[in-house]
Specification:
By secondary structure, the protein is α/β, with parallel strands linked by helices. It contains 16 helices and 13 strands. The N and C termini lie close together (about 5 Å). Residues about 270-280 have low confidence and may be disordered.
Length: about 425
């Protein structure tokens, strides 16, 4: 069985990381040969093992941004929010035709992942569906069944007629084009979470949608010595460490302002003296220390006197040390599907605190291996931090992750899906 996984990048972004891990898991099964086709590779082709194939260049990405730019500028608040909005949408006007490649012709099944920012256009996707090969599409966000955005969020536009981000008719036209595409062609969506699987069934009712988790390599993400990890990373040995991680720390979708507000609540004088019935011990905020991973951390205004270590960008191989070094992982994301970071942290035995949104409450069992805070409620986020620091949840977090994101299980579920679509092997 030959599987071709298609992604914009090999390693940049959660979708790319999940796709590469799935490829590795599939290649451990007898009778399966999986390759990954990407535009952006991490290593030069001559240094790779042949499992990752590079195609095309970034020119389609540039053309697409040129098209999107005026549609954003002429929307209310366009100039002010240009920096953030420019990357919140994708129109899929331009892309790379992968159907002409040898790897595509040899594949038994085509498995799409995150293919935006000029990787595949809607026309390219049509050509793939028309090839006659079974097509599976993992939903790392909501773009495949929405108009141009990656998450619906608070938007109530059912058919993207009055898009709050882009002016003009393009969002509605693209939405209708996708609906027609799925009605006339066969595609099977894989939802990484139960939440996005249900959303896909509602947003693209003519397409089939099944739920399969992403996998996490246990050989890399597993419990290690906390003190040894702190020593390697030069982190404080005698503090309660809280981790916040994002590719871009200032991304509004990651909810950093709610985390800052929660830390301010914890830093208030009353927080040191108040008795909280749900916590068996009082929280001394002078013992707290924030660890930030990602770009732009210097722009975050933390409470005065609150200790912080800014690690910048950390590679995948070093992230297990970070997770094992901290007491809790905080993910105040406002829009998310099945964050790799939560699965990775829990695989290292680190309890997590996050909002009740997307697939997060499926990952965190409230007060059993972490804390699920009320959506956009900084006070409850602060309470969640108090709770996980006052209870030993590490073993419970590890057990949940080792069962839910096991490589062999996820690979087997995908192979069974491929066979159900008529793929032999």
């Amino acid at each position: 069985m030959k599987v071709l996984l298609v992604s914009t990048s090999e390693r940049c972004g959660g979708g790319a990381i999940a796709a590469r891990r799935l490829m590795n898991a599939l290649n451990k099964r007898n009778g399966v040969e999986a390759k990954m086709m990407v535009r952006d590779v991490a290593l030069p082709q001559e240094e790779g093992d042949g499992s990752v194939i590079k195609v095309g260049n970034k020119f389609p990405k540039f053309l697409e941004r040129v098209f999107i730019l005026p549609h954003i500028i002429f929307r209310k608040g366009g100039w002010k929010n240009l920096r953030s909005r420019l990357w919140q949408v994708d129109t899929a006007d331009c892309g790379i035709d992968i159907t002409r490649t040898k790897e595509f012709r040899e594949a038994d099944v085509i498995h799409l992942h995150w293919v935006n920012q000029g990787m595949l256009s809607l026309m390219d996707i049509l050509h793939i569906l028309d090839s006659g090969k079974p097509v599976v599409w993992t939903l790392h966000d909501e773009w495949p069944y929405l108009g141009v955005c990656h998450y619906r969020g608070d938007c109530t536009e059912e058919e993207c007629i009055h898009c709050p981000i882009m002016a003009g008719e393009a969002p509605h036209i693209i939405y209708r084009s996708k609906q027609l595409l799925y009605f006339m062609r066969t595609v099977t969506f894989v939802g990484c979470s139960g939440w996005i699987t249900k959303q896909a069934r509602r947003g693209a009712s003519s397409a089939n949608a099944v739920h399969i988790n992403n996998c996490v390599p246990a050989s890399l993400f597993h419990p290690r010595s906390m003190q040894r990890s702190r020593k390697v990373l030069s982190l404080p040995k005698d503090k309660r460490l809280l981790l916040f991680c994002s590719q871009n720390v200032t991304d509004e979708r990651k909810g950093i302002r709610y985390l800052v507000e929660a830390l301010q609540i914890l830093s208030a004088p009353l927080a040191k003296e108040a008795d909280n019935e749900s916590s068996p011990e009082r929280l001394d905020v002078s013992d707290l220390h924030l660890v930030i991973v990602g770009k732009g951390s210097e722009e975050i205004p933390l409470p005065e006197g609150f200790g912080v270590s800014r690690l910048g960008t950390v590679g995948e191989q070093d992230m297990p040390l970070v997770y094992n070094a901290v007491d809790a992982f905080l993910t105040p994301s406002l829009q998310d599907n099945l964050p790799n970071t939560i699965a990775e942290a829990m695989s290292c035995g680190t309890p997590c605190v996050g909002f009740n949104v997307g697939g997060i409450p499926e990952m965190i069992n409230h007060k059993l291996n972490g804390y699920v805070a009320r959506y956009r409620d900084a006070a409850d986020l602060a309470e969640g931090i108090r709770f996980v620091l006052s209870h030993d949840l590490r073993n419970s977090a590890f057990r949940k992750a080792s069962a839910a994101y096991k490589e062999t299980t996820v690979a087997r579920q995908h192979v069974e899906l491929y066979k159900g679509l008529g793929v032999r092997g």
